[in-house]
Amino acid sequence: MKCRRCRGPAVIDIRRHNAAFCRDCFLRHCREQVKRAIKDHEMIVPGDRVLVAVSGGKDSLALWDLLAELEIEADGLYLGLGIGDYSDESGRHARDFAVARGRRLIEVDLREEYGFDVPVAAAATRRAPCGACGLSKRHLFNDVALREGYDAIATGHNLDDEAAVLLGNVLRWETGYLGRQAPVLPNAPGFVRKIKPLVRLGEREMAAYCVLTGIDYQVDECPMAQGNRHLGLKEVLDALEERSAGAKAAFLFGFYDRGREHFLEEAAAERGDLRPCPECGSPTTSELCAFCTLRDRATGENVPVHLRRAPVGD
Amino acid sequence: MLLRNPRREIEIAGPITVVKLLQQLQINPETVLLIQGDTLVTRDALLSDGDDIEIRPVTSGG
Ligand code: SF4
Ligand SMILES: [Zn+2]
Ligand SMILES: [Zn+2]
């Protein structure tokens, strides 16, 4: 195959664009897609301080790199989740990347700072670890961004991640989650803006970006992801994509353009009246926020925990 | 043909295209990258017997 742009030998084909690219033209394609996502959804305005949620995996490291390529200044935040070797290795990938490129990486360790980790929380709540993990991540990203004065939190969710979450929400008609699934969640009192600049790029493109730029990312999966509902949804979507190139993008972007608007009311209604959590100050509809409740439960304070079912795979 | 990560040898005679190889291994090309030696290659690339190949999964669960 030949590069669509320069006719040189191609290194990657992207069927949904009916195109193949050489290394340089592919990297340019990635930058253009991120730039377009940021512009179309008004993710970042000049002068914004951006915090990237860095896991050490391909998506977050590629995102951090791409933002720098686009001259958007961004620091990183790594959360130590305490998931054995996986967390040790992920942390190393995140740190090595930050050191090599001279970037600021903020680190928060769940166990050191809150007295529990993901496996402990999972055992204490007798739920799948991804629920406690996702809840902790959402809380801490927001918390650190607020404390350190960032304007936006950028996460590495790509087209495949978002399409899988969408399929999961549609299969269960989670109307509230559907109303809240967007490439940008604007800031609100107590909440920093959340942005997903990779929504126009697929998982395969992100892995290729890392291989081609020499980003050494954590290839092995989180051991807790086994049997994760998210993976099953991706398999289904990939099977559709293989039969009909562009199916995933049409599904996701069609939802953003024409579907989501129908669920906004539900999402607003579900939000309820927010007041600050007495322990940490985060906005919550209950007595104690979900994170503080989880922490109390996981550290042995005897409080019953009621985790709301998390959106798929977040 | 020699596959890396995990390292294993498979009984598939080259030359064979990436698409055909993945078909024989029942792998959806949408879910992997194919690295021949140290370069990324497209679906139509021709792989030969002596090649060192990595089929890298790209799907993550978190
Ligand atoms: S797979 Fe689950 S437990 Fe592992 S990092 Fe992702 S959300 Fe957390
Ligand atoms: Zn080119
Ligand atoms: Zn709280």
In DSSP terms (H or I, runs of 4 or more residues), the helix count of chain B works out at 1
Summarize the amount of helix of chain A as a percent range: 40-55%
Helix content of chain B: 10-25%
User: Rg of chain A to the nearest angstrom?
Assistant: 19 Å
Strand coverage percent of chain A = 5-15%
Q: Indicate the mean pLDDT of chain A.
A: 93
Question: In the CATH scheme, what's the topology name of chain A?
Answer: Rossmann fold
CATH superfamily of chain A: HUPs
User: Any guess at the CATH architecture of chain A?
Assistant: 3-Layer(aba) Sandwich
Strands of chain B, total number: 7
Q: Main beta sheet of chain B: strand number and arrangement? A: 5 strands, mixed
Rough outline of chain B:
globular
- Name the quaternary structure: heterodimer
The major β-sheet of chain A equals:
6 strands, mixed
What is the end-to-end distance of chain B?
A: 32 Å
CATH architecture of chain B: Roll
The level-1 CATH class of chain B: Alpha Beta
The main sheet of chain B orders its strands as 2-1-7-4-5
